[in-house]
Amino acid sequence: MTNPRYLAAKLLDKTFKSGSYSNIQLNSGLEKSDLDNQGKRLCTAIYYGVIQRKITLDYILSKYCSRPLEKMDSIVVTILRCGIYQLLFMDGIPDNAAVNESVALVKQFRKTSAGGMVNAVLRNFIRDGKKLVCNLHGTEAVSVEYSVPVPLIESLADDYDMNTAVLFFKYTAESEDFTYIRRNPLKCTHDELVKSLDVIELHTDDELCYKFANGDVINKNAFKSGFFHVQGLSSQICCMALNPTENDTVLDICAAPGGKTFTMAEMMNGRGKIHAFDLHEKRVKLIQDGAERLGLTNITSRTGDASKFNPELPEYTKILCDVPCSGFGVIRHKPEIKYKNLTDFENLPEIQYKIAENALKYLAVGGEMVYSTCTVRKAENNDVVMRLLASHPEIELAEMPELYGNRLENPMTLFPFRINGCDGFFIAKFKKIY
Known about the structure:
Layout lengths: L3 H15 L3 H11 L4 H16 L1 H11 L9 H16 L5 H14 L6 H13 L10 H9 L3 H10 L2 H11 L5 E6 L6 H7 L3 E3 L6 E5 L7 H4 L3 E3 L2 H10 L6 E4 L6 H9 L5 E6 L2 H14 L4 E5 L12 E7 L25 H13 L2 E11 L8 H10 L3 E3 L4 E2 L2 E2 L4 E3 L10 E8 L2
Helix pairs in contact: 1-2, 1-3, 1-5, 3-5, 4-5, 5-6, 5-7, 6-7, 9-10, 13-14, 16-17
């Protein structure tokens, strides 16, 4: 059977070299392996943990390694990161196991000459009490503690304040031991879902939202039977903000992979119409397959460029404009995003504005549109909204519905330390008045 630590190190080395998305890299690796569920959980914990804590781990290693990390063999550095991560953050793993398995990995990767060094570094860390001792101050100290690049911390502190930034990054550095799912009321009752999944917990304020203890949820028979789909709490709130009914004709202009499309279709009781578009055929197929599995016949999905007007489409009473974004709100799930250079996202606000402006062309008078992102950067959120309002007098901010006993703000930025279980997310709702 595959060694879960070996697979984690192999996938990490690929991820750090290629810059690929962590979830795609991990899922592909696990699917090709012969690991059992316990092995998959260990591999996943180490893989995501090392990416999440890379800056912290490298700071520690810089204190114990005689050579700069960038001058060392990449796989040896990866093995050291895995070892330090297990020692510092995985209480259930004995120290000797973390050390011995790391030394064994060096041999498996045919880097035997580094075995003594790896053993010495990890054992010296143990002798020193397995502590993160940071001699830095201010933003640099925050960077090491929560493993976030300094420019990203400064950017978020400029948008809000340092306290907000620290609270947000503290949350994103914590591991998550559950997945949010949404029950399909057209397919099953609460009792039927609970009977089919033995490790779920109902969200206290939402009879359709559940927490599933981490595991392979998509291979459950209940998933294959269309009893639920996987969707983060923030995305569910986004759909509730738009609040479509069976009397609406809905446009989901950037729909793939389809989670919000499915939630809206279920909110509409499988009636009305939803037109779901995405730029790529493969991603449209994800929507089509999901709709078929869930039994949602009110969804029509096809390819389309969200930035270009299609005169063949009708007017819509509700539009969801969930635009491409930097994704900094979901770095808890995709931690590699936080290491990207902020300059990579300079052109996003213009793209987002262009998509939102095009979406408005489809909105019927009296209709409502939600603009949303899974980031917390004001340049992609509030600034785009203000520009839309300034350039389009035919729209105004609409009233939000009540949720969990309170009326939602408009616009609103969701932070996990304000609404438990949420990712960083932004929602604004417009109404076309003429």
